[in-house]
Write a structure and sequence with these properties.
The chain is an all-alpha fold and about 80 residues long. It contains two helices and no strands. It has helices at about 15-35, 40-75.
Length: about 80
């Protein structure tokens, strides 16, 4: 049976992947906001809560982008 070994951590394209994740999350937020016009009650509140979580995710992605960019500058990638 083959030994399970972790895959190497290729960080060279992390910034680009994170930027795509930010764009996709913003797109999802915008689509959800459009849906809010046709929602009410519990559904409306659920969309607001999900968008708040998305905003927090975006902030995290942006922090990771800064970290990865700094790592590139320092030759750690």
């Amino acid at each position: 049976m083959p030994k399970n070994t972790p895959k190497p951590d290729y960080r060279s394209d992390n910034v680009e992947k994170l930027q795509d994740m930010v764009k996709n999350t913003i797109g999802n937020m915008e689509a959800a906001e459009e849906t809010m016009a046709f929602s009410d009650g519990k559904e409306l509140e659920a969309i607001r809560e999900k968008n708040a979580r998305r905003e927090a995710s975006i902030e995290g992605f942006r922090e990771e982008i800064k970290d990865e960019t700094e790592a590139r500058k320092n030759g750690k990638v």
